[in-house]
Sequence to fold (148 residues):
Amino acid sequence: MNDFKRILIPTDGSENTKAAITQGLELARVMGSEVTALYVVDQASFVNFPMDATVVSIYSLLEKEGKDAVDYVVNEGQKLGVNVTPKVVEGSPAKKIVDEAENYDLVVMGTLGRTGISKLLLGSVAERVVRFAPCPVLVVRAETPEEE
Fold:
């Protein structure tokens, strides 16, 4: 079995990433791995807006959401005795995760499990990360309400 000494867990702070966070942290606990929780502030949301007070305010909210998201992973890691380093960056989520993955042995991330037209229209960060990451990627599908 591979030694996954450094694990990257990207999160968007949603319920859909909680199953992946749990899996990634449990794997880290068993293997004695270091973990980094990564949140990417998606700059694409702001490309067509002038930089005024409203955009700055929205950006601040997203930064706070990012801090809260990585802090959640840090707190969950503490419960398991896993040291988690929080990291908030700006950019395109898929590109930033792939770029960061160069420094890790494994990426553990969640997905909504979209199919059909929804996937076609919205794309999939997880799919792009799987396709382009330089290390293995474990994708954990979020539980749907029927599965819980």
